[in-house]
Every structure is written in C-alpha cells, then in structure tokens.
Structures
1.
Amino acid sequence: MKITVNVWRQKDADAKGAMVTYPLESVDEHMSFLEMLDVLNEKLTIDGEDPVAFDSDCREGICGTCGVVINGIPHGPEVTTTCQLHMRTFSDGDVIDIEPWRAGAFPVVKDLVVDRGAFDRIIQAGGYISAPTGAAVEANNIPVPKADADHAFEAATCIGCGACVAACPNGSAMLFTAAKITHLGLLPQGQPERDSRVIGMVEQHDAEGFGGCTNIGECTAACPKGIPLDVISRLNRDLLGALRREAVGS
Amino acid sequence: MTTTPTADSFHVVGDDIRDGAAPTGPIERRWDDRKFNAKLVNPANRRKIKVIVVGTGLAGASAAATLGEAGYQVVSFCYQDSPRRAHSIAAQGGINAAKNYRNDGDSIYRLFYDTVKGGDFRSRESNVYRLAQVSVNIIDQCVAQGVPFAREYGGLLDNRSFGGVQVSRTFYARGQTGQQLLIGAYQALERQIAAGTVEMNTRHEMLEVILVPDADGTERARGIVVRDMVTGEIETHTADAVVLASGGYGNVFFLSTNAMGSNTTATWRAHKKGAYFANPCYTQIHPTCIPVSGEYQSKLTLMSESLRNDGRIWVPKKQGDDRPASQIPEDERDYYLERIYPSFGNLVPRDIASRAAKYQCDDGKGVGPGGLGVYLDFKDAIARLGRPAVEAKYGNLFDMYARITGEDPYSEPMRIYPAVHYVMGGLWVDYDLQTNITGLFCTGEANFSDHGANRLGASALMQGLADGYFVLPNTLADYLAGSPFEKVADDHPRVVEAVQQVQERIDTLLKINGTRTVDSIHKELGHIMWEYCGMERTEEGLIKAIGLIRELKNEFWTNVKVTGVNEELNQTLERAGRVADFLELGELMCIDALNRAESCGGHFRAESQTEDGEALRHDDQFAYVAAWEYDADGEGRTPILHKEPLEYEYVEMKARSYK
C-alpha cells in the first residue's frame, strides 16, 4: 500500500524542528511501524539524505526504548508499543504524522529521539529495595500472598517508555512513579523504606519538571502495558501517610 | 590455476592452554576453596580502586551494583538510553535454581549434571558446578530485592519445568522473567548511582580497550575508548580493571531474537588486542520463534520455550498439505517430537527440537508461507486446563503472537520456526572470569564459560546473575588486591594510540561514500551465515562461506555508504562500526566450525551424524575448548587455535539421549 508520512525533523537539541513529508510507495501490511521507518531510511540513505533518527532496540515490546507520537497518540492507534504496531492497522493512502514525545522533561535529542534520563533519576530517588548482595534470607522465608504478588507484578511490568508522560496534558510522570511505588509497596520486603521512597520519588518527579497529576487518565489509556490508574491513588495514600508521619516525627 | 583450500589451511595450531585459576579437589569444595584462597581488598582501599564495567544487562548491572556496594569506584557504560533497556530484559521463560522446592529429586548435583549433559560435554565441570551452587543464592537475592516471581496460593514461590530436564526448577514471572530480574538489578544499580559509587554513562559505546604494560612488562587492561553517541565525542576512561559484560553476538546473522543494537564490538575489539575468542561457532538456534514474514523484516521474535510445556508440536503427515490446521484430522498429524523422543517429547533440548523442525520442513511438511514453519498447538491444553488457566500462564505470549501475525493462537495453532537466539561462544575466560589479558574480565553471554555447545533453557539468566552478583565480586577482588596500579596518564602513548585507532576507523567509514547501505551488507552477511553456518554445516559450505564473507568484507570497505558526520547522533555510523566487526567475527565462526569436524550441541556438522541423524561427537579429537588468537599480522586470515582440553571426572561422557 501507499503511505505518506510527515516526520518531525530536528537536527539536535538546540535546532528548530519542522515536519517533513515523505511518500512511501510499497508498504507491506505485515511490516511493523518501525520496519516501515527502516524502509524510509534505506531510501533516504541511498539518496544521500540524513536518515530519520529514532530509538528502538528489542522490537518485541519489552525494552521500552521505542516510542513516537503517531497521529497525535503515543505509540499510535493500538494499545501497544510502537515496535509492535503493524502497518495492517493503516489503510492504503493514509497520511501519518510522526512526532517525538512532547514533554518539557524529555528534551529532544534529534528527530524522534528524546532524553528520558529523568526516569532513571526518579528511580535513584528511592525506587528500589536496599538489599545488599549476599545478605538475603532464604527466599521462601518471605511468603507473599498470591494476590499481592500478582498485583505487584502487574505494576512492575512498566517498561519506562514514557508514553504516559507524552499522553498527559500536564506532562506528568505520575503513572510511571506510582507503578514503582505500587510494585515495591505491596511487598513485605518493600515496607521498611516505604515512606522515604514515596517522598523521595515524588520530590524528584517534581524537580525534573514533570507536571502535576489531575486524574485525567490519558496516561493509562496510552500505556502499552495497561498499568491501571489506581496505582496513582495508592501513591497519593502513601504520600499523605508518609508526610503525616514525617510531620509528627514518628 | 586455483586449488580448493583444505579445511585445515584456514588456521594454524598454537600451544594448548590451561585454565590457570581452576581449583582442584572435590568438586563441591572448589568454589569455597577458591573464595577462601582469594586475596581480599580492605574496605578503606576499595575507594581508591576504579573498575570499568561495559554493559548493563543482568551480568553487567549486577556486577556494577555489587562492586559499587562493596565500595569500589565503578564506571559503567551502556549504548542504550538507560541501563534498564539491556537485552536481558527480553528473556521470557525463567531462571533455574536447585532449590528442590518441588521435592522432585532436584539437587545442586542434578542441576550440574543436567547442564553438563545439556551442553553436550563441551563445558567445564568446575564452572558448571559453581553455577549450580550459586543458583540458590540468586533466587534469595532477587526475592529480597522485590522481584515479583510467580507464587502459589500459600504465598510460596512457584516453579515450572523447562526443556532438557525432568524436574521443575524454573522460577518465573509470567512470560517476563528477564524483565523482572533486570529491573531488580537495575534498581540495585540506580541505588549505587544515587550513592555515588557508580558513575553511569548511557548512550556510550565502547570502541577500544587500552592495554598498558606495567613495570614488569605485563600487559594489563587499563581502560577503554568510548564514543558519546549523542555528541560523537571520543572519550578515554582508565581504571584498575575492565569488565566486559556486553552480551552476545547473535546479530551476526542479521535476523535473530537479539535487540537491534546487540553487537560484538566490545568483545571483538578486545579479541583484536589479544583476548582469545572461544568456541565462536557454538550458536543456539531456538526452536520456537515466529517465522520470517518478509524481506523487510528487522528481527525475529521468540515464543518462550515454556510454551512447550503445554503446547504440542506437529506437522501434517502428508507432504505439501495446505489445508488449514483445523481441517487436518488427528490421525493425519505427526507429533514428531513425541514420536521420536518418547521420554522427553516436546521438551527435548533446543538444538534437538530446532533440527527436528528443519528436517520436517526440508522434507516438505512445513506449514505457512514458504513451508518454513511447524505447528505449536494448544488445543489439548485448552481442553484439559480451560482457557483461563492457559491465559494466566501464557497470556502475554499469546497476545504478542496475535499482534505480530494477525492470527489468534487460541483458535488456531501457532506457527513456529527456529531462529538464532543465543551464542554459547564468547571471550575465553579462566575460572576467575579473567580473559587471557591480565585485568580484562568477561561475564554473562559475552564469555564462553558455562554452557558448552548448547545452553539449556532458563540458564542464561542464571549465569548472568551468578557471574555478576556472586562470582566476579570475589574473583575480581583477588586481582585488585594488587592495586591501585600506577595511574595511566591521559597522554600515555597507549592511550593516544587507542584513540587514534578509533578516530581513523570512523574517518574511514565516513569517507567511503559508496552505494550500498550498511543494512544491505548486514543482511547479506546474515544470509551467508544462516545458509552455511546455521543449523547444519558442511566442510564444503563453510569453505564457500569464508570466501563469500571475505568478498563481502571487501565490498563493505570499498562501497558502503555512511551518511552524516561523527559529531552528531549518527545511527548509521553506529551500525557501520558494528557490522564491520560482525564481518570479521563471521569469518572466524566459519573457521571454527570448519575445524570442529564433529557434531555437538548447537553445532551440527552434516558429515558427523549417527545412522538416525543425531549429532555424533568425536571426543577423542574434539573434547577441547577452541580458543582463537587473532592473527594480527595476517589481518585475521589465519587465526591461531589454542586448545584447552576438557576433562570429566564426575559426569561420564556419553552420547546424549532424550529418547
């Protein structure tokens, strides 16, 4: 099928960007969206033009590296990662707009590539359990109710792609932050650091320039892993409790 | 006049090598003895010692976190935009550990035995035993970090069985075990970054290792040259030791289940500086991947081996039967694995399952486009367990399959075909995980050490974390006890030389300005490798492949087109550098495969098979690790083979049988 793509081209972080139009003559419906961009890049390279820079790595929907805004929707019309979106979703003659994640805390590096280092810094602010190597107790000495383990797992499937931020009108990273709070907060191992974790991570979230959460829910609608909105409620409860305990000094 | 070269004209034989760090004595005591005899570094001194770790997958992130926690100054590098994205994240099925929670007769000894046998007697007993011992600590460590493994209703950990074994020892987190383990290691790493013990450099690619002779003339690995992939800046980093945890080289085949960026550059650069490359031809072709759909295809997707627990593999009995699966009656289906291997059935090891699928397709019984596929059918499992139970176990895999193929695996069987998945070969290391270059260590898939000629399922995650959390921190300390070494000046001739080499290579790549894209050459290399150095190899084919690769290498260096400049984010330049190294590695793989005139594990030489088509080893001639030294004078054309003899004191060497 024939497709026309309008792609955001921006030389580097400081350059001014613009949409550039490229027609594609023979797109196979079984191609993934990124394979369609590979085909475009092969053509651009042969023509001596600069290929479109975009991030991708595993191409099986788990590493979280890829992600572009397709016709205004992060990762496009299906609830999946960009690499798992296939051209059979589109029709012959379609015009597709392709842009990078748009958020102040995710500056553009080049074309469709953005810097998501802010996510790593949020994790550094407490998104872990301090478990020095070698000091662990026998694994089955820490039983975890299956329901909690399953719920924690569900939250832990976040791939850190940033679609939640790109989808949010406020540019908030609350779904990402809350998924980690939920994953670790549901487990017995996560209890000792539960208060410091939520306070540290939320402070870092704000310091990175992500916006506040106003419970719009665009994040969960765009999330390729289906992280539910209620993780944010859990974060809010944890945060209020932690701040209260910090205030009264207990 | 041209003459056909003989198989042994492609290399020369050097001296045998020995694993100088290998302990002796009763096997169950060896690791404890090695740890006890290893020198220690006093905590106050650790702050003065710097260690470079390249790669942030399971092996790299766990090592960096543990070394940082111990108090060393760690400098960590990854090519991805975050350490959390390393390709360990894509491992699906699980991680083995000899916990014997099922009370089904498992033990450290049995895990050791299964792994040595599964590796077709081409791995070291001491290493494998240590791996089995440490496996139990890994599960404890990961649970303490909050890794959400699957649990039973009583709150205890669940297990499942995996290919090549008859016990249930695999711990898992739905179909995303690698993701959960990597996130655990990543979080431990981020904790150390916050504590200031680890300096993280993302979007940096290692392009050279720096060797510096000490006062006695011993060449030591003292640093690396990296390229900042955003600015193009070439940086040097020096340290007291260098650890390569840079993953496997399956992308030499272009199409594989590896990530787009997975590459051999770090290990290949080290090889060209003198590190031996061991058993490069040992490639794991995974039996259950989604078949290729078109020429544009950029990668292949694995369907976890765990699916073979409940899915049944079959082809139509009749050649060229193009009826839909649902219209082929039971008695016209051949469940060939169950038929040929009644005791292991669908759970035979990967190499056997892959080859069996190839034979069915070669015999004209393959299904789907081009006849390159076999069915993996869940009809019986759904009838027996109910759809919800199947969904709970494999839901995400079924979804992935549906998304990629546009077909519903709940109502029609999956089509699968083998694909390159993992490499058992890698840099040669001793028991301490040190390469033959002093101070250069190598862990995880990047080394060759534990899997022999075939890796069992759920053992890669085990090895990566064993190396990073438990083995390397002990053995590296023994080496570092002699440090900090004399500081290497930024203008040391060896540093300047390494930077110059990197710079010249980049300049050359950018200047060629030919007519072929990097990907088109990479694809061509992949076709050559798959055809002649894939599931079945022959002397004739391998000699042909070496010739083709040499021509292609020449084509690359005279006719490749790399657009743009160095001083920017230039993904074409990144790929060009990696493909240049794949071309050289591909040649060495073929030379290794040509030398090994036997079949073992994932390496199948058509000339060496039993009457019923099973792999036939020649232990009298090939019970050794093939460690290759780069032939610097001949630009790699005639590598030097060093043999490390393998001895089996505990497990009797015999033909594997899964019948």
2.
Amino acid sequence: MAQVVKSLRDRYRYAIVVFKELVKTDFQLRYQGSFLGILWSVLKPLMLFAVMYVVFVRFLKFSDGTPTFPISLLCGTCLWSFFSESTSMGMMSIVNRGDLLRKIHFPKYIIVASTTMGSMISLGINLLVVIVFGFFAHAQFTWRVLLVPFSILQLYAIGLGLALVLATLYVYFRDVAHIWEVVMQALFYATPIIYPISMVSERGYGWAADLLMLNPVAQTIMDIRHNLLAPQYTPTVWTMIQNPFIRLIPYALSVFILWLGVHVFRKRQSAFAEVL
Amino acid sequence: MNQEVEQSPVVLSVQHVAKSFRLPTEQASGLKQAFLNWARGIKGYTEQQVLRDITFDVHQGDFFGIVGRNGSGKSTLLKIISQIYVPEHGSVQVNGKLVPFIELGVGFNPELTGRENVYLNGALLGFSREEIDGMYDDIVAFAELEEFMDQKLKNYSSGMQVRLAFSVAIKAQGDILVLDEVLAVGDEAFQRKCDNFFSEVKKDPTKTVILVTHSMDSVKKYCNKAILIKDGEIIESGDKDTVADRYTLENVAVKPSDAKQPSDDENDEVEKYPAGLNERVPFLKVWPISEQLSDGEQPFRFEVEYEFHEECPFYLAISLIDRKRGGVVCDSGSVRMFKTGRQRVRFNIPVASFNNSDFKLLVSLRVDGATPEGPTDMVAFTNEENSCSFAIRNAKNKDYALISERVLDFVQE
C-alpha cells in the first residue's frame, strides 16, 4: 500500500515539475522579441474591444440600453479570447511538441494543460484590466464576485476538455484545424458577446435565446458577467430558464466535455509518439 | 569482481518484447484519405516487424552495450526501454530512476538562455528546480560555459550547445542512464573529459549505463556486457568482445537475405543476372575458405567459382580492396584460366604485413581484347554480394596505417 502511495506521489511530482517549467517557458516565449512584451496581454483585448465597440455599439447600435454594456462587451471579449486561444493552441500543442514526445517519456496531458494554462494567465491579466475599467464603467461589484472563480474554473474545464479532444484528433487529421476555425466563427456569433441576449429574445425569438444559453460557453460568459459586473442587468441561464433540469444542461455539458477530453486523450496518448 | 556484478539486483528487465510499426502506404494524414481508405476497405499501411522477442536483463552497475547495424531496431528498443513507445508484446520493468537520452538537449529552445535551458531540460528529465540548483554548478563547470550561461542559446556555437546538453545528461543524478550514440561530440579536450566520466561511472557499482553505439572501441573500453541486434532479434549476447567482433563481421559480411533468388523474383526476365554477370558468365563468386574474421597470422585463403563455356583464352583478375582507407592494395593482373564450365580455383594472399582493416576481394573474368597484346576486356565482375569480405583484427596490430611497421617502417639516416 505504502508502495502504491509513494509511486503515485512520485508520478504526480514529475507532472508538476514539468507542468511548471513548460508554463513558464511558454509564457516567456509568448511575447519573445516583441517591443512591448507582456503589455500585449493587456493591449490586445483592449484594441479588439475598441474595434468591436466602434463597429457594433456606435455604428450598429447593438446595446441593451444598460450602462454596463460596454464593460460587459470588454469582459466577453476577454473571455472569448481565452476560449478561442486555449482550444486552438491546445489543439496544436501536441503536434508542435512532437519533438519532445518522440524523445522522452512524460505525462502527455501536461503539454495540453500547460498550453491552456498559458492562456489562463493571459485571461487573469485581462480580467484585472476589466476590473480596473469596471470602476469607471458603472460595474456593480457585489458579494457575487466571490462566485466568479467557479465560473472561470468551469470555462477552463470546457477549454481543456475541448483542447484534449482536438489535440488528439489533430495528431491524426490535420483537417481539424480548418474545421475548428469555422466552428469557432459560428460559435462566436452564437454566443451573446457583441450583441446582448435580450436582442434575440425581444425580437420574438425567445426560444432561440434560451437555446443559445444552453451552450456552456455562453452560459459561463453570462455567469461571469452577471457575478462580476452587473447582477442587475445581465440575464443568466438562471433568470431566463425556469425548468431546473434544463438549467443544469450547460453545467452537465461542461463536465461531459472535460470527461470526454480526458477519456479520448488517455485512450490514444500512448500512440502519439509513433504517429507524430 | 565479475561475480559481484552477477549477483547485483536486476534494474532493467526486458521480457519478450516485440514491436511492429504501421508504415502508411498512402498519404493518410487527412480526413478525406482516411474516409476513402475506410470506404474502399484498404488498411492504407503495411506492418513492419521491427523487434521480435527481445529478452535481456541489466544488473545494477552494468555498463551495457547495445549494438547493431542501421535499421536493426536498436533505437526502437531504446525507445521502448525509455517508455516512449509501448511494446506490442512483452514487458519492460525498470527499478530506479531511468534517465533517457535518445537525443541530447530535449526541449532546448534557442530563444532561452543557457541557464533557463538547463532548468527546462532538467525538468523534462524529471528534476525539480531545487534538485537542479544542487547540480547546476557542476553542469556548468563540466560544460566549461561559465561566461555564457546568460546568453541565449541561439548565440551558442553548435559545439557549445552539445556540450551543455551532454553535461546536463551526465550530471543528472539518475540510477540508469540510457545513451544513444552521444559519445562523438565536442572537441578533443571535452572528449577526454567524457572518457574520464565513463571510466568513473564504470567503477561506480550503483550506476547503470545502457549505451547504444556504433563504435566498437567504446564497447570494448567501457562495457562489461553487450548484445548485438539484427533484424529485430538478439543474435549475440553476453561477452562484450565476442559481440564487438561479431558486429565487425556483420558489417563486412553481406547479409544472406540480400542475395537474390531469381526463381521467386517477380521481374524474372529483367533481373536474371545480378549486376556484373550476364549470359556469357552466368556465375562468378568468391568464397572464403579461411575465417572471415582473421587474426592475420595465416594467409587468407579463398576460392573463385566461375562458369564460362567459350573456347577462347580467358583470364581471372583479382583485386584486394582496403575498405577502411579506400584504394586497391594489390592486383593479380590477368591470370590465364584453362578449364571451362563450372570451375573452382583456389588462391591465397598473405596478410601478415597488414594492420587491422576490412578488405574486399573483387574478381573479374576477362578475355583477349581486339589485339592480343593490348589490354584484356572484362566480361564479368563480382558485385558486392559476390565479392568476398574479410577483416583483420589482432591486438598486436595498429589501426592507422595499412602496412604494419613490422614489415615497413621509416629508417632514420
């Protein structure tokens, strides 16, 4: 028994050592050679936000009329960047690190986990920016802020689960990259980021709005906006859907995605070194 | 001493390991191809058996050599030992911390500094920051790169990179080191350091080294046991000298599987005769009579077998080729033959005046040219597989020059 515990701890220790070092390296290399360096982590979402704000809020008048819509938009952009970055970079990670896999034995999920964790660090920085801007943009910080970490954990679980599935598929079929790009574009428009969800429901598509909210990514983003910025103005799956079982669908889906990712990855990982 | 080693515990046990690879016959890294293959019911790959039933044990304190020609499966075996590949059958048991070096500097990134790379490389080998802190100074000192550790790796010369990588490798405090052909790196001074290191490790009864190499000198110098792998099987194991000599022989001898069997060849008409032969001379081959691995004391005896039916004067010409240094060592000129039909003729050549080398005997069959006085015309010659190879290995011989100083030496006037 003691032997089992010891060997488990040893295995775990190695994973942590590699994980830390890979996250550190990835992050160090991310803005390698760029003039502003880590500042880009802050600047990029702000600039993206500026573009969206001008196009969608100023010109196209997408707004739910609440004072927190701009900061909600910024927050949504940051969360979406995390989701899109973690899945697409996670997908490539195994293939990109193929040289490692062919030459050394170590827990392969570490590669995917460290890549998504890199995106997570960016998200952390971005959320700090969101909070700072929130003070100037009518954000209502309440006790509900304490719930935000749970939603972020959920978003990470979705991102990691999808990244694990995609990374496995990408080892065998490089087409996945192109397919995923399109899927991400579709998902982006299916998620209430640049438009308020009320815009859908007010036009008589209440069922469509409900359906969109069942997407776990949309649900998480709305939860975070609700809890972090505007409990009063942001609808969530809790306020929109009455049926308690249907409400739980996005949460259950998140767990399922993570399980699926881990399952698929574990089943296939031993062959990666030979296929790559 | 040997007894002690025998009784030490087994640290690596490889039992009946077999492995085959799927070699894609068609480009199949796309969905479309995968679907088409599936729809047409083709597998899209062929199986290649790389290892079949490999079994051996390595004891603590061993310096274990794995040798074999290119493509014999030794790298695959190494990857299975290092748990990078999963064996199809059989099992690998490791007791202790195994540090594999399939390649030096795994994970080295040119954009990071030398210091950061040491930590990254170390982490991948399973060492935490604190552990590397402990060995960092040793690593840097061994690599002799003190002034360069805060430079980016891309500014290192390739020799410096290899030195750094090698230092991490050998200073890493593993119980079992797995090294794949890494001895030939660095300048001479660095080589000497490595040499010392290996000699030290060899004495240390707690460290085990598994070394894959082509250098028989290293095997004879460091190893206490070795195995020779050929076509995925162990064909010689145990004593390092036997293995090293057998390997030398394997390299000079032609694999029997290479010899063409025209009967089961598909292109029967086209390739009826191997290169060098034709319908006038359907057979010409040199057979060794002496051992192909010779100590050089006795003349090397061999037999030329030919088949020739024309009633005209014909000749055999024999050349001795030095495979190691290149060039023709000696040549018989045209030797008149008289018997037609399928015949065997015996020759020998004294080799006592040569140092260690690998030789090849080439024979050509010739007839008179346009004018009988002029040079003869070649009708047939022995190709690689019909020629005869042999090697001279003797402890009293040197390796550098072809002619031994016993026979020919400079005289100071």
